[in-house]
Amino acid sequence: MSVANVTVQTSFYWPGQPGGDFLAGYTAPLIQFIETRITGLTPNPIVLTNYFSQMYRPEHHNFGEEFIFEPRLEPGLPPSVLNELNAANIQLLYVRWLGGANAVFSLLGLDDKFRALQ
């Protein structure tokens, strides 16, 4: 997913698809994140692997998804990346994936204000 020179590459596990009558109304939940790599927010890439720094919500039948990536909750985040986030007024990144190449990115600043990336 990319918007305005910011790219998010995330990988995670979904459970296996159920069979039978459940398949028609199935929305897969996230089992576990593997890793998220964010480039373009700061000069250095941000890599998240921690449970608390990556959040997920599936939309109906997984036709869309919402993510929140909060680097400050990542243990071992290099101080240089934290300084870069502070300088850029970034608390977290919100991504709503709408299917295909369509995604909406928003940033929550340290000032508690959202701003869209376009």
Helices and strands in order:
Blueprint: E1 2-3, E2 6-13, E3 32-39, E4 46-48, E5 54-58, E6 65-69, H1 79-87, E7 92-99, E8 102-108, E9 114-117
Antiparallel strand pairs: 1-2, 2-3, 3-4, 5-6, 6-7, 7-8, 8-9
What does this structure look like?
The structure is a single chain. By secondary structure, the protein is mainly beta. The chain is built from 1 helix and 9 strands, in the order E-E-E-E-E-E-H-E-E-E. It has one helix at 79-87; strands at residues 2-3, 6-13, 32-39, 46-48, 54-58, 65-69, 92-99, 102-108, 114-117. Strands 5-6-7-8-9 form a 5-stranded antiparallel β-sheet, with no helix packed on it. It has a 4-stranded antiparallel β-sheet with strand order 1-2-3-4, with no helix packed on it. It starts with a strand and ends with a strand.
Mean pLDDT: 86
Indicate the proportion of strand residues.
35-45%
Overall shape: it is globular
Number of helices: 1
**Percentage of residues in helical conformation:** under 10%
The overall number of domains is: 1
Ends distance: 13 Å
Largest sheet: 5 strands, antiparallel
User: Strands of the biggest beta sheet: in what spatial order?
Assistant: 5-6-7-8-9
- SSE pattern: EEEEEEHEEE
Number of strands: 9
Ranges where pLDDT stays below 50 over 5 or more residues in a row are none
**Protein structure class:** mainly beta
Q: Rg from C-alpha positions? A: 15 Å
